[in-house]
Design goal:
alpha+beta, elongated, 6 strands, 3-stranded antiparallel sheet, binds zinc ion, 3-stranded mixed sheet
Length: about 120
Amino acid sequence: MHEYSVASAIVDQVKAIIEEHKATQVKKIIVSASPYDVIIPELLIEAYGIITAELDKFKNSTLEMQISKAEISCLECDYKGEPAEEGDPEFAYNFICPKCESRDTHINMKNLTIETVDLVIPDN
Ligand SMILES: [Zn+2]
């Protein structure tokens, strides 16, 4: 299951963030993915639950997945950014450049990114 390794990578990154901030507890993690990432949020959250079940610092924490906007690169004019209009995902390569209206564009896939980690940090 692809989601399992993705969730495992998220947990590893958050563990490093916990260390760095000397946190005692994770409350909430928000990750974002691009609309064409092949990650199923329900499976990701389920995998996260399995991985963190035995981890004290992750007890009762939640994982949220957001879908970020698609980003294209225009092969005609070098524009990078949001497409003029989002095409049908069935025709993902049919995005239009807002600058020169070319359809000769391709979608930039973005890896799943950790946006926010809500931690409990004891003040001392
Ligand atoms: Zn263009």
